[in-house]
Design brief:
The complex is a heterodimer. By secondary structure, chain A is of the alpha/beta class. Helix content of chain A is about 35%, strand content about 20%. In chain A, helix 4 packs across helix 5 and helix 5 packs across helix 7. Chain B contains eleven helices and twelve strands. The chains are: A alpha/beta, B alpha/beta.
Chain lengths: ~325, ~325
């Protein structure tokens, strides 16, 4: 049994009085201990929705309309709020995009760290302080002792995100869900932060769900990859395999559109159009209006995820070699 | 389509440009702190070029673009456009120059007035900067630019919220081009867009450059875009140009340790960039500039001289200009 097993997860939001639209339309995933999974997609693909749904954090009026999230065999969606709090922020931690928003600006770093510890552990102030300093050192924050009394605005963006990571690690979680952890940061800081997350996950055997739009970042950090489009997973498999030979036309299009693949000054491959809003999904395969390989069948019904790809005409290695 | 004017010299040139922003003074202190946004920046941009400026946030890349357009006034130095000095012009003198120099901003969700329809957004710069045009001419001009930027002419009566990010950025580009400028500052024009849309906008910028003979000052933090798009690159750090070279040279043989650091930080599809843990490194405080090289605190080949003496840009045999005492 996998450590985390998500089955046929649907998230719906009301539209009008009697109707609903689905932001997540049946997502499956499994995560083993220490495994690193990348979730890639454009804005509106449902990747953050997936992270929130796993922790049963979908805000009203949205709701998980179907599916299960099993963590060590227990369905998180059935747990009472009191019990899920033992898991959320403790055994499954989250790192969000913007550290200026996640940290409370009027509390010192130390207060915020100790608050997390006290919520989940019976621990004396002295021990808590020592543990906080140890974690700050682990994320390579210089002069960790004095930083405990600092406020978020006194730290730079990179250091703030390190503090957020330190808080996520405080309770020795089994899974970290990182939602675009470096999007608000500079490239050099991104490299520092991702290198740190990668090192900590490896050393502590922590599983990672990394949500991002950056294929370069997932290629560097993750072993398994899931590509999302319009609330569904369209391709999943080992990261290396998808990056080297994607089978879904959308995955292949995203990779081909990267500037590093085109020669200097040549025209970039571009996927026409943009992702449809969830309120107005096209019939059949949701990608067919933008797809170069669409056939009559794609207009009819939506393809299921078979052998890791949800496409009637997946690209084989041969077709890729021709283009 | 306007034919590009034959030009020999640079279209835009800055000489020792410096921009400083005064900061609020503490009421008990006599010190007057200033933020050094740009320190003696001298670059010349040739006609038809895609001159890229890269660097981390706070390095002064946007300030440089804005200073050239006259949106920030330099505290020292000179700025020339087609050989004419423009930094000391008053608003009336500047007006004819403004037609030729336009800007595309980073976030199309913020740069378009939400209450103004597409036609009015595009017509305003023409009405203001080219008052000689009749309203019929304005209408033709707007339609011509809309179709050139891949916008549907039927969008004219619609408001920004009806469009997606990529469509909005096309409208913003159309607005920049409607006065038929020769020089466009594009400040991170694709950073706020989704991956599949970025390629569409980059292709559009390339096509427009070919058709209209545009010169771009392209401000970005994304080096892979520079590699694909740029002709020459200036790498900036703490308000100073650290390395200036043709795009291919800078990627094949980066000379400045900071350029090297930036290149190493790009996540690569092949992997391997993040395997080594990195120590935190930050931009120094732009209020109290270090005495020597601004990069000294993060540099792995730093020596005593670097902490004492600020290096100036100097030419290397391969044509790269670099501000480092030891690069060769």
């Amino acid at each position: 049994m996998a450590m985390l097993e998500v089955k046929d997860l649907h998230v719906a939001f009301p539209r009008g009085k009697h109707d609903e639209v689905e932001a997540l339309r049946g997502v499956n995933l499994t995560l083993e201990k220490g495994e690193r999974l990348g979730v890639v997609g454009e804005s509106g693909a449902g990747k953050s929705m997936l992270a929130f749904a796993i922790l049963n954090l979908i805000a009203e009026p949205g709701r998980v309309s179907h599916g299960t999230v099993k963590f060590n065999g227990e369905n998180l969606l059935d747990l009472p709020e009191r019990k899920i709090r033992d898991i959320r922020g403790n055994r499954i931690s989250m790192i969000f995009q913007d550290p200026m928003v996640t940290l409370n600006p009027v509390l010192s770093i130390g207060t915020q760290m100790m608050e997390t510890l006290r919520a989940h552990r019976k621990i004396s102030d002295k021990e808590a302080r020592a543990l906080c300093i140890a974690k700050l050192k682990e994320v390579a924050i210089p002069s960790a002792e004095s930083r405990l009394d600092a406020y978020p605005h006194e730290l730079s963006g990179g250091l703030r995100q390190r503090v957020v990571i330190a808080i996520a690690l405080l309770t020795d979680p089994e899974i970290i869900i990182a939602d675009e952890p470096t999007t608000a940061l500079d490239v050099t800081i991104q490299a520092e932060i991702m290198a740190l997350i990668l090192k900590l996950c490896r050393e502590n055997d922590v599983a990672l769900i990394l949500i991002t739009h950056d294929l370069g970042v997932v290629a560097e950090v993750t072993e398994k990859l899931m590509i999302m489009y319009a609330g569904k997973c369209v391709e999943t498999g080992p990261t290396r395999q998808i990056i080297d030979s994607p089978r879904h036309p959308y995955a292949s299009g995203l990779l081909k559109a990267l500037p590093q693949h085109a020669g200097r000054g040549t025209r970039l491959y571009q996927i026409p159009g943009s992702m449809p809003p969830i309120t107005n999904l096209p019939k059949g395969c949701t990608y067919h209006p933008r797809c170069d390989f669409a056939t009559g069948r794609c207009h009819g019904g939506e393809p299921d995820l078979v052998n890791g790809v949800a496409c009637y005409n997946p690209l084989s290695d041969k077709a890729e070699a021709k283009t | 389509m306007s034919t590009p004017i034959e030009e020999k010299g640079p279209i835009v040139e800055t000489k020792g440009v410096e921009v400083r922003f005064p900061l609020p003074t503490h009421f008990l202190s006599r010190e007057k702190p200033v933020l050094h946004a740009l320190n003696t920046v001298s670059v010349s941009i040739m006609p038809g070029e895609s001159f890229c400026v890269v660097g981390e946030s706070g390095c002064g890349k946007t300030t440089l673009g804005r200073a050239i357009l006259g949106l920030n006034s330099p505290t020292a130095g000179e700025i020339f456009f087609r050989g004419q000095r423009i930094d000391q012009m008053d608003e009336a003198e500047r007006k004819p120059v403004r037609r030729d120099m336009q800007m595309v901003f980073q976030n199309p969700y913020a740069s378009l007035n939400p209450r103004r329809n597409v036609f009015d957004t595009l017509a305003e710069p023409v009405r203001h900067l080219m008052p000689e045009m009749s309203s019929a001419e304005v209408r033709t001009r707007v339609e011509e630019v809309l179709s050139a930027t891949g916008c549907d002419p039927s969008w004219q009566r619609r408001l920004p919220h009806e469009f997606s990010g990529g469509q909005r950025q096309r409208i913003a580009i159309a607005r920049a081009l409607v006065t038929n400028p020769a020089f466009v500052v594009a400040d991170e024009p694709i950073s706020a867009l989704d991956v599949s849309i970025q390629a569409q906008i980059l292709n559009l910028l390339t096509e427009l450059q070919k058709d209209r003979g545009l010169t771009y000052l392209f401000i970005t933090h994304d080096l892979s875009v520079v590699e694909h798009f740029g002709t020459r690159v200036a790498v900036m750090y703490l308000g100073q140009v650290m390395e200036l070279a043709p795009a291919e040279t800078i990627f094949d043989t980066p000379k400045h340790p900071y350029t090297q650091l930036l290149l190493d930080a790009i996540p690569k599809l092949e992997g391997g960039s993040f395997d080594k843990p990195r120590q935190p490194g930050e931009l120094p405080d732009p209020v109290n500039l270090p005495k020597g090289c601004p990069f000294a605190a993060r540099c792995n080949m730093v020596q005593d001289r670097c902490r004492q003496e600020r290096p100036q840009l100097r030419g290397l045999p391969n044509g790269t200009e670099v501000a480092c005492h030891f690069a060769e």
